Amino acid sequence: MATTEKPRAVDEERLMEFVFRAVDEVGATLNAALVVMGDKLGLYRALADAGPLTPAELAGRTSTAERYIREWLNAQAAGGYVTYDPESGRYTLPPELAVALTDESSPAYLPGFFQIALGSVIDSPRITEAVESGDGFGWHAHVHDVHEGCERFFRPGYNANLIGAWLPALDGVVEKLEQEALVADLGCGHGASTILMAQAFPRSTFVGSDYHEGSIQTARIRAEEVGVADRVRFETAAAAGHPGDGYDLVTMFDCLHDMGDPVGAARKVRDLLAPDGTWMIVEPAAGDRVEDNLNPVGRAYYGFSTLLCTPASLSQEVGLALGAQAGEARIREVAEAAGFTRFRRVAETPFNLVFEARP
Ligand SMILES: C[S@@+](CC[C@H](N)C(=O)[O-])C[C@H]1O[C@@H](n2cnc3c(N)ncnc32)[C@H](O)[C@@H]1O
User: Are 187 and 250 in contact (CB under 8 A)?
Assistant: First the structure.
């Protein structure tokens, strides 16, 4: 006798709650593009500098079209990014948001976060195809907003933590850097971390590498711009091909999980290191279990992992695809599989875990 499945009861209230939550999420999705627009056109900067402005005044200050600016400002006001005074018709960027949206020196600086998110969304049709085919999608193949957004997203965290907290947490590394150390920064992207270390430790020498030629060209320009090009060399090379040996410190910032063969890369790090050298691994903050990461930070990182990190790893040999939420236990496994005998977590922030591995 055929059984009929009893339809599951739908709670109408929960359904409508979700619909209204989705309205907010769609507004937030669209706002990512509006934030990048405001950043690129200098709209936040003008509001921060001038105080309350009408749409015409903001348009005049930024050489933009008033009709668009009025709409953009209303979207910003509806999202709580600016306040609106109906009496004067003026819009104000509150001081806290002015810091987050315009102050590049603040650890809370956010435009890069939106820029890399928007770049990821722009590339999502191609990732959707990859999800169907199982093919990878390399970091190099993304739009420029992913590469530049990545640099601008991570740099504030490095400025806030790398020199003052993360390097001092490593055993004996700062002392070596202050003398005359040789440092390799693998998967360095636009070289934000490499250049920051070079500025802090003028007696040491730095070699950054990344398999993406375009990123390395930008890194070279950045080093020239801040006057450290004499002590910082950038090479286009996959981690497995990083040149030289005898390094006192090898660093990897938010890139081990993007690599197709992290264990192979870790073995290469062992070859690159001097016998008492140190490997510093910076990875996204994550717990070991899925249920540890079901929170706003985990949500953003699983999103980036689906659109950027997992396809990047799958595009390379081995394709281990650790994912951006690999967690400490899996990173430790990688280090131990490559023969590192000592491994410990030395620092963490809401966004990053920092590990030290020694031969
Ligand atoms: C999320 S980005 C981080 C870039 C940089 N470390 C930073 O913190 O701004 C990941 C980087 O890993 C690089 N990458 C991916 N696979 C690589 C590999 N096998 N060898 C070297 N670099 C690799 C990418 O090109 C990209 O620049």
Answer: no
